[in-house]
Amino acid sequence: MDSAELPGPKDQSETATTVAKRAVILVHGWGHHPRNSRRDILVDNLAMSRRMPVGETTDGAIAGETFRRLTPIQEHLGKRPVVDVFEAYWADLIPATSDDTPPQRFWSATKLLFYWMLHPWWLRSLRQNRSLTVVFMASGLLLLLWYATIIVALAGFVVGSPAGTPSVAEQVDLPLVNEPTDDAGFTDVFNLVSQRLQPIFADIAPVANNEIFLLLLIILSIFGIGTTASVADFVRRYLSASVDKDLDAVIAHRLQTTLQRVFDQPREDDPERPDYDEVVVLGHSMGGVIGLEVLATYDVSAIKDRTTLITWGAPLAVLAHRSPKRVHRSIMKACSGRVPRWFDVYSSADWLSARLPAHDEHYENSSLAADFSISWLKFMSQHAHDQYYYHPESLSMLLAPQIAIPAPPKPTPPGGASAAQDAPRTGIGSP
User: Fold this and answer.
1) Residue 66 in 3-state DSSP?
2) Contact 342, 363 (CB under 8 A)
3) Do 108 and 89 belong to one domain?
4) Who contacts 360 (Cβ-Cβ below 8 Å, separation ≥6)?
5) Are residues 257 and 189 in the same domain?
6) Along the 431 residues of the chain, how does pLDDT read in single tens digits?
7) Pick from 236, 224, 234: which is nearest to 378 by CA?
8) CATH number for the domain including 407?
9) Helix 225-239 to helix 211-222 angle, to the nearest 10 degrees?
């Protein structure tokens, strides 16, 4: 079905209502974060809001889940909701590859390049967002340079084994850790090929001591290409059923479990009524993809009526091109009415996110282009990707009486900055 034919929701401000109690379930992005660490960053920044002031935060728990509570100051009680912030934690499910041997890293890097660079997805994305595609092609070039360092490390591994140590076949334990595969006999093949290519590897191995090569390592480290490669490899595993068949299902189950516990929580004074008037699924980065996929599978009115999705810097525009049968389909399901309320926040300074045309067509006044002022170096190193946790407008949405896109700030009045400071602040976007 074409996106223009979908009868999805329009202006969400028309159906917004003031709530007394709101639950926010944070679905964090990729990274080996300690449990609740991203939630605590979010709550600490929410607690510092000047426009939406709160009292001291408190800790609480429901069956199987913990939360931190943000209560409005006395003057705002009854006008703004009490907000309980949960976390659907899944960082412990990220496959660990830090102990991989050079051959394992080489094999993983080869599959990564095949998945991302030998696929025409970037040609389709070029028609939508050329600047985004250019950035990804630059990242692809960095990945190729990173791949060259992997080859150098592999060469050193093959030719550098001292006499008397186990053979390459005995040292290499492929396939990759945590990655099922049916590549039987790969270790023997690798051993055979490495022996035949021994002279070539012998010529490559000394490059590791070259000053230019060391400079390349420094440059790649500055741009955080190792993290980029790790994220790209995780996305490949998450979206490819043939790689980790249960990875996406197990991660989705984590969010579904937390969501169901929050929905089922009854009020203390009236067990027949739910404790939370509204449940917000807040997905940052890859967490936005996970949150969208989970909510798009629900078709229960009791859940949909109380649920709002907010995505921060979700790479949906890119992944919809790379995985149209899955990610694009989830977007279309959401737009068809499976997700009645969806607010998307992206930034031109965050090269992992971009405006979603399908979202804009079906959710009016529900997209926010966040303005991050960062240097070009931090732009390339993904520093901007975490700025949503500190962005005043993005944070204010979670504390407001009604979730809506903040009104743009008023222009500076005649009289300069001092007059602007004295002017009354309006809208929920002011910190």
Assistant:
1) strand
2) yes
3) no
4) 366, 367
5) no
6) 444 444 455 555 444 555 789 999 999 999 899 999 999 999 999 999 888 899 989 999 998 999 999 999 988 888 899 999 999 999 999 987 666 666 677 777 777 777 777 776 666 666 655 555 666 666 667 777 777 777 777 777 777 644 444 433 333 333 333 344 445 455 665 566 666 666 776 777 777 677 777 777 776 666 666 677 778 888 888 888 655 668 899 999 999 999 999 999 998 888 888 889 999 999 999 999 999 999 998 877 777 888 999 999 999 988 888 888 899 999 999 998 899 999 999 998 887 788 898 999 999 889 999 988 766 555 555 677 889 999 999 999 999 999 888 766 555 555 544 433 333 333 333 33
7) 224
8) 3.40.50.1820
9) 60
Going by DSSP bridges, is the β-strand pair 82-87/367-370 parallel, antiparallel, or unpaired? unpaired
Count CB-CB contacts under 10 A for residue 187. Answer: 18
The dihedral region occupied by 111, where left means phi > 0, alpha psi between -120 and 50, and beta the remainder, is: alpha
Classified as helix, coil or strand, 380 is helix
Q: Give dist(CA 180, CA 177) in Å, integer.
A: 8
Tell me how crowded residue 400 is: count the other CB atoms within 10 A of its CB.
Answer: 21
Q: What is the pTM of this model?
A: 0.77
- The residue assigned the tokens 């994220």 is 231
Regarding whether 235 and 273 lie in a shared domain, the answer is: no
- 313 near 350, Cβ under 8 Å? yes
DSSP secondary structure, 124-173, as one string: HHHHH-HHHHHHHHHHHHHHHHHHHHHHHHHHHHHH-PPTTSPPHHHH--
Total structural domains in the chain? 2
- Considering the domain architecture, whether residues 109 and 220 belong to the same structural domain is answered as yes
**Does residue 112 share a domain with residue 89?**
no
The total number of residues shown for the chain amounts to 431
